[in-house]
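To illustrate the input format used throughout this study, we show a single complete record. The first block contains the structure-token representation of the backbone; no residue identities are included at this stage. The design step must infer an amino acid for every position from geometry alone.
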């Protein structure tokens, strides 16, 4: 029965779902707000990452995971081939009217299927990350080769989205295809659910209440870990770190500090973040904007911290994220020079309790409603 339903969509997501909260949020939203039957093709999570495997209670979803991401090059090649053949086979068997893929590495079977079906299907894609022309050119050969195939087929797509306007603008310059209909290009930001939004003002009445939290990938080279840790120790402020992707140099650095003020708390599952954030006042974003992907990003964590009522510290050299700076009401987004944290007068922020409180307006329900409306319209047009 699953394969006979007409309201079908296939979503291809090469990377494991559990590492990308936006795709998990999108799947849940589509299942809860439409009658679509969804076939997901992804990869298995590395057992070393202690996340719960993503599942959904609905009987309108089927998740297939043909491979696992390996470090060994021969295993990787085998699994790429296996994933693409497997995905293409199930596209033929399932025969959906709509295919949505995420990132270049997921695209090959979707493009092949579109070539066969032509106008009978709608092809859609979304990019979690922004990859420059130079990064494609100098990066993994497979990714570069497939992206060349993508570019030759973009004119046949019905939807192409990036996570913000700046990334989309640069993407359009990179692909240099002005003849493609502008209407297919969209912005689809990464926000948490409305259910995360806190209506409780986290006023801080004492410096003793101050607790910082960082959630995300972490290493010494590409993050302001040293700067933030030094600041926390010097000012005797609790700074807790949660990461599923933390490099050995960062772990060793934290251990060698031997400080009770800076603590690595291990992995945190996405569904536990909201409850965990209740115990903190300020969330920090520690990215060094060393790549265009980071420079022109507004990380998910900004909006997750905000939704839970936390003030947010961001590096003042994250160009796109600076568009969200707000210091006129709580929760605030405060730009910081992490190389000059000694000049950061955090006490003045703590004592500034006369600001009004406005719950975060950023939620994925409003964003995904636009995508779902397009999907249903494509579905209707194809029947």
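Output of the design step:
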């Amino acid at each position: 029965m699953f394969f006979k339903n007409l309201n079908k969509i296939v979503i291809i997501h090469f990377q494991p779902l559990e590492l990308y909260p936006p795709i998990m949020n999108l799947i849940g939203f589509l299942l809860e707000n439409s009658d679509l039957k969804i076939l997901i093709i992804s990869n298995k999570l590395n057992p070393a990452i202690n996340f719960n495997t993503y599942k959904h209670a609905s009987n309108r979803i089927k998740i297939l995971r043909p491979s696992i991401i390996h470090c060994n090059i021969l295993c990787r090649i085998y699994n790429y081939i296996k994933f693409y053949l497997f995905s293409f086979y199930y596209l033929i068997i399932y025969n959906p009217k709509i295919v949505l893929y995420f990132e270049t590495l997921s695209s090959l079977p979707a493009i092949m299927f579109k070539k066969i079906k032509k106008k009978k299907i709608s092809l859609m894609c979304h990019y979690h990350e922004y990859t420059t022309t130079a990064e494609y050119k100098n990066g993994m050969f497979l990714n570069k080769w497939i992206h060349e195939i993508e570019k030759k087929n973009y004119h046949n797509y019905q939807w192409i989205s990036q996570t913000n306007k700046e990334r989309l603008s640069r993407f359009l310059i990179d692909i240099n295809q002005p003849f493609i209909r502008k209407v297919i290009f969209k912005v689809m930001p990464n926000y948490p659910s409305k259910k995360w939004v806190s209506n409780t003002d986290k006023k801080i009445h004492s410096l003793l209440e101050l607790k910082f939290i960082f959630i995300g990938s972490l290493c010494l080279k590409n993050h302001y870990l040293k700067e933030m840790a030094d600041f926390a120790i010097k000012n005797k402020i609790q700074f807790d770190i949660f990461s599923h992707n933390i490099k050995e140099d960062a772990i060793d650095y934290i251990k060698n500090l031997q400080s009770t003020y800076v603590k690595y708390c291990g992995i945190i599952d996405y569904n536990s973040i909201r409850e965990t954030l209740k115990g903190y006042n300020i969330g920090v974003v520690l990215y060094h904007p060393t790549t265009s992907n980071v420079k022109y990003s507004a990380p998910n964590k900004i909006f997750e911290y905000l939704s839970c009522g936390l003030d947010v510290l961001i590096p003042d050299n994250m160009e796109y994220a600076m568009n969200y700076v707000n210091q006129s009401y709580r929760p605030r987004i405060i730009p910081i020079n992490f190389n000059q944290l000694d000049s950061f007068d955090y006490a003045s922020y703590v004592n500034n309790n006369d600001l009004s409180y406005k719950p975060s307006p950023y939620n994925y329900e409003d964003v995904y409603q636009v995508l779902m409306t397009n999907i249903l319209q494509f579905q209707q047009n194809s029947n």
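Structural context for interpreting the output: Residues 85 and 109 are 7 Å apart (CA to CA). The longest helix spans residues 73-94.
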